[in-house]
Write a structure and sequence with these properties.
By secondary structure, the protein is mainly α. It is 64% helix and 2% strand. The protein is built from 19 helices and four strands. The strands form two sheets. Strands 1-2 form a two-stranded antiparallel ribbon.
């Protein structure tokens, strides 16, 4: 019995390659890429003051391009290549034909070229998320140096340790389905650390930083949410039932988180904040990422409730009470939305991970190898569950330590070459002083004719509303 012509092996379609897997992997990678370009480009450019729209959007676009060149030059092989030292692969190029057309690692049924592309978009979005903590004051030239340095000396370490088959945390059995540790915890900690070294925005901007276009912000947020279909759905590296489960769990957790955050805003502040709902959406996406394909649907809902409430509490309550959080100017609150939510997701993964689903994802013969604490208790083997929880917490500590140390060293190195922060004149002017370009040919910067009291990703400030005077003029109440 012969195969149909479209399934016959050929030089361009070797017998080891599964066309469906390859097609889905390329599609998933492109969905993740669109989370950054144009997703976060739009989101960053619209959630900031008008005078920072061009700079914020361009920081994201630059990082995307820079990471790709570094990734194929040395980053991919440092993250997924042959073992160099205990926690890092050997640097090497990922450009030659023989390597790119060969079957990728772990017997996945598509070529290295597809894997290089897929892993690149994850590396790129990590740097862009870090940039979110630095919007509105970082010297663009310093950002140009920071991106390749952080990719090389921080991202590759955590990626190799957790995702590479040779990584020490990977061998211990850490569960990070799609980047709760490597991407979100890393970006949250690194962003917060870099924000400390760069310093705060201008006082006027820190006190009042209204979005210049909330509708465009929602468009960027929508691309981010829908792009997560590829973010979590692509990590089984195959068109599988586990991929389908990961996609559904992702959206269920995200919707639950958004609604939880929204209800808390209404309950405590009396208004349904659009910016708040967007933050709840992001924390849900982040929290489910390390667990997407290894937890059941009911667990995804519980994770959504916690991701919509615990980061809300740290952002709205603890942020205003803790000295360190108040001192560091984290523009997009990535510490709360990514570091807190990513850590929460990692811990909850250690609790809710279902052994049989882990067998589907990790393809291990012993389905009890990865056992969430809830199932360890249920099966009468609590030791296995506590062991998994311990590994998850160990991973959190490791990622925090690596990112605090490496990000600090990189910032100290960069500031020897160029200032990390813009000059006072540039801080006051924004885009025109930095790039010689402005986003809108309109006057004003949201300082006048502004009636909304929701003016920051961190919370609420009261401002007098605009009321009409006699004769049709406008004045502040």
């Amino acid at each position: 019995m012969s195969l149909p012509d479209n399934l016959q092996a050929s030089e361009a379609s070797p017998a080891w390659m599964n066309k469906a897997d390859n097609a889905w992997q390329l599609t998933a990678a492109t969905l993740v890429g669109m989370q950054s370009v144009p997703g976060l480009v739009i989101l960053y450019g619209s959630i900031v003051k008008k005078k920072w729209a061009v700079n914020s959007a361009f920081m994201a676009l630059y990082a995307f391009a820079c990471v790709l060149v570094c990734w194929v030059g040395w980053g991919y092989r440092m993250s997924f290549g042959y073992k160099g030292i205990h926690f890092l692969g050997m640097p090497n190029v990922a450009l030659d034909q023989k390597f790119l057309l060969a079957q990728t690692f772990n017997h996945n049924m598509f070529p290295n070229a597809t894997m290089v592309y897929f892993q690149f978009v994850f590396a790129a979005i990590t740097l862009i998320l870090i940039g979110g903590a630095l919007l509105g004051r970082m010297n663009f030239h310093a950002w140009m140096l920071f991106v390749p340095l952080w990719l090389t000396f921080s991202y590759t370490i955590t990626a190799y340790s957790i995702w590479s088959t040779n990584g020490w945390l990977s061998k211990k059995g850490i569960i990070d389905y799609s980047g709760g540790y490597v991407i979100h915890l890393s970006s949250g900690v690194a962003g917060f650390t870099a924000a400390y070294w760069v310093g705060p925005r201008a006082t006027k901007d820190r006190e009042r930083f209204p979005p210049n276009n909330i509708l465009l912000m929602l468009a960027g947020a929508g691309l981010l949410w829908m792009g997560w279909t590829g973010f979590n759905g692509g990590d089984p590296y195959s068109v599988s039932t586990d991929a389908s489960l990961a996609v559904l769990n992702t959206h269920v957790c995200t919707a639950t988180s958004l609604l939880t955050w929204l209800l808390l805003d209404i309950l405590f502040f009396g208004k349904p904040s659009v910016i708040g709902a967007t933050q709840g959406m992001i924390t849900g996406l982040v929290c489910i990422t390390p667990a997407a394909g290894v937890v059941q649907g009911w667990a995804a809902i519980l994770m959504g409730i916690m991701s919509g409430s615990i980061p809300w509490y740290t952002m709205m309550v603890l942020h205003k009470k803790m000295w360190l959080l108040k001192q560091v100017d984290d523009t997009m609150a990535v510490f709360h939305t990514h570091a807190v939510a990513g850590s929460l997701g990692g811990i909850l993964t250690g609790f809710f991970a279902e052994p049989k689903l882990n067998r589907l994802f990790y393809a291990v013969p012993d389905w009890q190898h990865y056992v969430g604490l809830a199932y360890g208790l249920q099966m009468g083997h609590p030791g296995k569950g506590f062991k998994q929880m311990g590994i998850q917490i160990m991973g959190i500590v490791y990622v925090i330590v690596i990112n605090v140390i490496m990000t600090s060293l990189i910032c100290l190195l960069v500031r020897v070459i160029v200032p990390l922060k813009l000059s006072e004149d540039e801080l006051q002017t924004g885009d025109d002083a930095i790039h010689g370009e402005e986003a809108y040919a309109l006057w004003g910067d949201g300082e006048k004719f502004e009636s909304s009291k929701y003016n920051s990703v961190h919370g609420i400030d009261e401002f007098p509303p605009v009321v009409p005077k006699a004769g049709g003029e406008l004045q502040m109440a």
